[in-house]
Fold this protein.
Amino acid sequence: MAEASEEVYSALHRQFKGELLRPGDAGYEEARVIWNGMHIRMPGLIARCVDISDIQNAVRAGAASGILTAVRCGGHSLAGFGTCEGGLVIDLSGMRQVTVDAGARRARIAGGCLLGSVDAATQKAGLVFPSGVVSHTGAAGLILGGGTGWLTRRFGLSCDNVEAFTLVTADSSVVRASATENQDLFWALRGGGGNFGVVTEFEVKLHPLTAVVLAEGLSPEAGIRPLLECWRDFMAEAPLDLKWNINLRLAPHTSNVPMELRGRPVASSSVIWTGDPEAGRRHLRRALSLCNPESVSSRVLPFTDLQTMADSDFPHGRRYYTKSGYFADLDGRTIRRLVEAVTSIPSPETMIELAYLGGAAAQVAAHETAFGDRSAPFVLTLLANWAEAREDAAHISWVRGLFRELRPAMKPGVYINFMSGDEQERVPEAYHERWDRMVAVKSHYDPENFFRLNQNVRPRKPAARNS
Ligand SMILES: Cc1cc2nc3c(=O)[nH]c(=O)nc-3n(C[C@H](O)[C@H](O)[C@H](O)COP(=O)(O)OP(=O)(O)OC[C@H]3O[C@@H](n4cnc5c(N)ncnc54)[C@H](O)[C@@H]3O)c2cc1C
């Protein structure tokens, strides 16, 4: 591998405009780190690109040498796909331009942007791009996997709001995919992750929005079961303007948490309303009616505050492990098991996250994009979050054990961006009946599987020659 990275370096260093970082170089240590502290790797070469020609050169040199190659935008892949041991990292952090056309409500987002850079640029024009809930997440990885967040019910998944992609494919050519150009690729890129090439630019639709109402509250342990039953029934009829997420966790020891709940199992509700605040009042009141009244708060929040409010809950460098799945319904047994599980949660930062899709995301037909299941509205994510390597086994086994117990009641399917790196066998499950088409597109654009550090769609083996 060391030879391969030297070969790539030799091929690149005369023409590369960005930085080339090898072990020992100034800046290398900082550049090799990704968000999830579980994945500490020493790449042989980090190629920090500044434009399309840098990416083309890196892909060409990487493919010629056969070196293991990672593509990185924000480095937030839970599975650690943004880096690799001894190989090449094509790092897009030098490409974070966002260009907004306010009149047309459109933007061009470069392939290395973080969500925060997108929000900062679009909010200047009073517009939003629907994305995720933590501003230091990379936009490219999030959009390519699908992209869910506070605005999913109102405006759809992130990938539903992409009108065109420009990418460098495995043969180093620049390809555009849209509703009228390379339609199969356009279909596959909306949910297919990083399987098809390095996306250099996303052309996206924007929507007018500058503030939301945020209402929050905590339900004590004895109130978790009725809260989940109420949430299940309420969300089936909820307006598109309302998004209600629930985290089951141990309540933090902070001043805004009633004393008797601190450190105790709770259901933490966060409800946002994107419409007229007056019209939302009765829905928010009903949603929080089962919370401890002292813990309930409601305020109008600027959109950028909403997008950054969870940033400090997920710091870089901690250790994270996750498993996720869908439910068509939340039956009584599943709810009982979830309530019990909060009492065995292994750390105060670990959470059982529950979200409800539906809304605009469910209005896009299943065959229109590669994205997994849009019909199963309940999304469950077990997210363990801890600091010390010596606690790995306890946290990972808690997640795996609980997931195993809940799995029989789940619908097949998984959102690829919430998967860990040890779930390759679930990738076909993520795409269901779309799997054969995914394999066909992958086999066409990346027959050698150069882009394989992702929730990987393996290409078909080339047919053996007869002669
Ligand atoms: C703190 C945190 C919060 C999150 N919140 C949400 C959320 O609200 N909603 C949601 O849907 N997901 C969320 N996620 C999951 C997130 O969508 C995925 O982890 C996503 O892969 C992160 O993208 P990234 O660019 O930061 O990751 P990276 O590690 O840089 O890349 C992830 C994958 O995408 C590929 N990739 C990256 N850039 C490109 C590119 N330009 N072209 C082609 N392939 C590329 C990589 O090769 C890799 O396979 C969150 C993750 C974290 C860690």
The two ends are 34 Å apart (CA to CA). The chain has a mean pLDDT of 96. The CA atoms of residues 448 and 459 lie 7 Å apart.
